[in-house]
Design a protein that fits this description.
Elements: H1 8-15, E1 71-74, H2 82-96, E2 102-104, H3 115-124, E3 131-134, H4 141-145, H5 159-164, H6 167-172, E4 181-183, E5 187-188, E6 191-195, H7 196-201, H8 212-225, E7 229-232, H9 239-253, H10 255-262, H11 270-283, H12 296-305, E8 308-312, H13 316-323, E9 333-337, E10 347-348, E11 351-353, H14 361-371, H15 374-384, H16 399-411, H17 427-443, H18 446-456
Parallel strand pairs: 1-2, 1-3, 7-8
Antiparallel strand pairs: 3-11, 4-11, 5-10, 6-8, 6-9
Helix pairs in contact: 2-15, 9-10, 9-11, 11-18, 17-18
The structure holds beta-D-galactopyranose.
Length: about 450
């Protein structure tokens, strides 16, 4: 399984700890901010004044005094538009710190499906990269439990940065008290993307689909009346089915019941969990024949080409549309909140951390400082398909789609964390659920999946 490793060390990190902590962050909303007045970034916090955003309180003089060590960054942003977004981040960093040599070391695989196997051994063995991509929240806790992440509450998180971040995101960056991560984006998971002309030709208006069951009817119509793939979806790795189950469940039952499940009370909602599994099994009859051998972005290319109608995916998929030629928001593609989930901003957040035994302490601090600036978040997010966790990032270059997402975010009733992307449950529960959904992708066995979910919690 992607999240398992044969190594004892990695096993130690994934399997231990914390059922006690599971779900405790689940009630935290991320829309709030410690400084809702916002700002225009004109305080220079975007680093545009040529400073590195450091006040020198780390003993450095705040200049670009790189000691020449390589900055090794491990991440999984190689798919869709993600590589371009990551490159834009690096370009901004290198403008600020031209002397730092960046060693880019990707571990490709959607939703980090390949990164743990690379990172865990290295961090536990005291041979970490300079920094790595990780979801804040629960995903951090195996590392914080072992003291493997540096407290960057003074070195990186100055008052200006703390004040600018939304409170709930700040909370996710300090799961055990110390600030150990720098969040860089906020994605939305509960999106149903579609090819406009494909659904129009089938007589379907996605804004009329009023719940998860209604989506099944639309898929049936597409299957009966057209040659396109009704729902583009990948089953090579389990996370896409796990996240789809999460959204079916929220669409049918609402967020309160979802919070109950991620808090560990599964048996009280057995019928509801089974209902979402039943519906997922029905959806999976309408996915591509090669779903088991494609990645999410390969599947998304079918939607762009007009060979598929719908895609359930995080808005990183919109980042891919942004890079596609002659494929415009509104005219060619659009999105509705996953049926039954309007008012929900199911959030997915990425961050970078400072592992202990750091091979390049100074350069890592510079990179994390930069990742927390207006400039970094203004370059990265519009391409990535996400909105910024800072409140003072100018939104005028974010385009119509992300402007609408941002409005939805601001008007949302709730921004729950996600299982499939690490914020909602401890990694040992997450990895067990990945196994459950890997099996489900093959068997569509609702009984076995329900038992697996019950056991996982
Ligand atoms: C998520 C991650 C996103 C995006 C997605 C697809 O877990 O937070 O930034 O990369 O996986 O791989």
């Amino acid at each position: 399984m992607p999240r398992d490793s044969s190594s004892d060390d990695a096993d130690r990190l994934t399997r231990r700890h914390y059922v006690a902590g599971a779900g405790t962050l689940a009630t935290v909303g991320i829309a709030g901010c410690s400084d809702d007045s916002g700002g225009d970034g004109s305080d220079g916090s975007d680093g545009s004044d040529g400073s590195d955003g450091s006040d020198g309180s780390d003993g450095s003089d705040g200049s670009d005094g790189s000691d020449g060590a390589e900055l090794e960054i491990v991440h999984w942003w190689t798919a869709g538009g993600e590589q371009d977004a990551y490159q834009a981040l690096l370009d901004g960093f290198q403008e600020e710190y031209p002397d730092v040599e960046v060693a880019d070391n990707p571990a490709p695989g959607g939703a980090g499906s390949a990164i743990d196997a690379v990172i865990q051994n290295r961090v536990v063995d005291g041979n970490p990269p300079s920094t790595f991509q990780i979801w804040p929240g629960q995903a951090l806790t195996p590392y914080t439990d072992e003291g493997l992440l540096e407290n960057i509450g003074d070195s990186v998180w100055d008052d200006e940065m703390r004040d600018a971040y939304r409170d709930g995101v700040l909370d996710l960056a300090q799961p055990a008290g110390d600030l150990v991560a720098v969040p860089i984006n906020i994605h939305r998971l509960n999106n149903l993307f579609y090819n406009v002309s494909v659904v129009e030709d089938a007589g379907i208006d996605p804004t009329d689909i009023d719940g998860p069951q209604g989506l099944l009817s639309a898929l049936e119509t597409l299957d009966a009346d057209t040659d396109v793939t009704p729902l583009v979806h990948q089953t090579q790795t389990p996370w896409s089915s796990l996240q789809l189950w999460e959204n079916i469940f929220i669409g049918e039952q609402g967020v309160d019941d979802y919070q109950t499940v991620i808090g560990g009370d599964v048996s009280g909602l057995e019928d509801e969990i089974r209902s979402a599994l039943d519906l997922l099994a029905s959806y999976l009859e309408y996915i591509p024949e090669d779903a088991g051998s494609i990645t999410w972005d390969q599947g998304n290319n079918d939607l762009i080409a007009g060979d598929a109608a719908f895609l359930h995916q995080g808005d990183w998929a919109a980042g891919q549309y942004g890079g596609a030629e002659d494929f415009d928001f509104g005219d060619d593609w659009d999105m509705v909140p996953f049926p039954g989930t309007s008012g929900v901003y199911h959030s997915v957040i990425d961050s970078f951390v400072f592992p202990t035994n750091n091979p390049s302490p100074e350069e890592t601090e510079q990179f994390l400082n930069y990742a927390g600036t207006v400039d970094a978040q203004e370059r990265f997010n519009p391409i990535k398909g996400s909105i910024p966790p800072r409140t003072d990032v100018p939104m005028d270059e974010f385009g119509d789609f992300l402007t609408r997402q941002f409005e939805d975010f601001q008007n949302s009733d709730t921004q729950p964390p996600t299982i499939a992307h690490g914020t909602a449950v401890a990694p040992d529960i997450h990895s067990t659920l990945d196994e459950v959904f890997a099996n489900f992708n093959g068997s569509l066995d609702v009984d076995a999946a329900y038992e697996g979910i019950a056991d996982a919690f």
